[in-house]
C-alpha cells in the first residue's frame, strides 16, 4: 500500500459491534450486519463465539460493581455471540446511534434496539462507546491475525 492509502486506513476508526445471545437466537444476525454494510462501513473481522466469564469480565470491567452485573453475565453467557469489528468514518459514534439507547424503550424507531427489542437486559447488541474502547474491545475479542486490513472496492463510491 502507498503512504496515502496507509494514511487513509490509519485515519479510519474501528468499533467492536457484538450481537448478543438473544440477537443470535432471534435470527437478527443478517439484519444487523446488513445495516452496517448498507451504511458504508467495512467489516474488518467477524466470528461466532461462546464467550466465557473471564472474557466478559474484561469486556465489561467498568461495570463490575453495578447491581445488574451478575444478571448481565448470565445473559451474555446464555449462548453464542457474533463478534464483529467494523471500520470507517466516525463508526464509533454512528454505530452507537444505529444501535439506539441502552434502554430499548428510550431507543428511537429506526434504531436496532428501537426496532427489535423492549428490555434493557435483552437489548440484542453491543457497540463500543469511545474510539479508545473500539480499539481495546476489538483487540480483546480478536487476535491480530483475525483483523483483516483489506481495501474495500467501494471505497471511492462511499468516501469523496
Ligand atoms: N444493562 C442492564 N441494566 C442496566 C444497564 C445496563 O442490564 O441498568 C446491560 C445492558 O444489556 C447494556 C449492558 O448492560 O447493554 C452494558 O451497559 P452499558 O451501560 O455499557 O450500556 P451500552 O453501552 O450497552 O448501551
Ligand atoms: Mg457500554
UniProtKB/TrEMBL annotation:
UniProt keywords, alphabetically: ATP-binding, Cell projection, Cilium, Flagellum, Kinase, Nucleotide-binding, Signal, Transferase
Protein's UniProt name: Nucleoside diphosphate kinase
Active site: residue positions: 126
Reactions catalysed according to its record: a 2'-deoxyribonucleoside 5'-diphosphate + ATP = a 2'-deoxyribonucleoside 5'-triphosphate + ADP
Section covered of the full-length record: 33 to 192 of 192
GO biological process terms on file: CTP biosynthetic process; GTP biosynthetic process; UTP biosynthetic process
Organism: Tribonema minus
Enzyme Commission code(s) on record: 2.7.4.6
Lineage, highest ranks first: Eukaryota, Sar, Stramenopiles, Ochrophyta, PX clade
Protein family per UniProt: Belongs to the NDK family.
Residues bound to ATP: 20, 68, 96, 102, 113, 123
